Amino acid sequence: MSVRVPFAKMSGAGNDFVVLDGRAFEALPGDRAAWVRAVCRRGLSVGADGVLVVSVSGPGCVRVVFFNPDGGEAFCGNGSRCAARYAATREAAPDAMTLLTSVGEVQAVVDGALVSLTLPPPEDLGEIVLEEGSATFRGRRVVAGVPHVVFPVTGLAAYPLERVGPPLRRHQSLGPSGANVNLIETDAGGRIHVRTWERGVENETLSCGTGAVAVAFAARLSGAPETVVVVPRSGTVLTVMLPGESARPACARLIGDARFVFEGVLDPEATVSAE
Fold this sequence. Notes:
The protein is α+β, with helices and mostly antiparallel strands. It is built from five helices and 18 strands. Helix content is 17%, strand content 43%.
């Protein structure tokens, strides 16, 4: 592909994204899924946890399409927060806006580098026990825009997520699409530390917005308060608010950092040998 593409690199609490204006994405020739896979390759291109395409859809309304590094579409909480900041910074939308996403309308508020989303309430699919090798993982299945499993562990920082993440993510008990895997440990102050193995990325990410919501909801079901502080691998905290009944919250508010890293123009060589 010979097109030079303007883009922004953004990070949402450690989740990093290539962000494009919708018109630039639509102008790409050829297989756009292959383009996404090429651009997300670390070391050979920009490298990212996914690609965000942001388009104005009406007054105060922005359409957000998120692509995983494998080229498939999904919902992304941290990505949606970055998309809101991108739109507000370019005056494509006011600081309080509606995002049109794969899970429906999501309200976003941009306050400098801090962005909050009001998401549909997560869904509890019940407790689950998975066996992997000689280990038994006891936790909970949660849908927070996308499916997650949440498992408490001891010694999270050194836990071999790279070994247990892939088979757990594709465990037959989770169905053909599998789920994102979140390993958690709670500190003395009640903050929940989490490491996430993300499907579509097929690797550990430094942060996961929907994972933070899933983790907070699992904690809420175990007696945590309405507001839960989640610490992802990046160390940049996310705050999740789940107002209402613990099992049936009215919504999920996801609040955290969404920052610009750099802006540039993608050279055609960045997509050479995409497949």
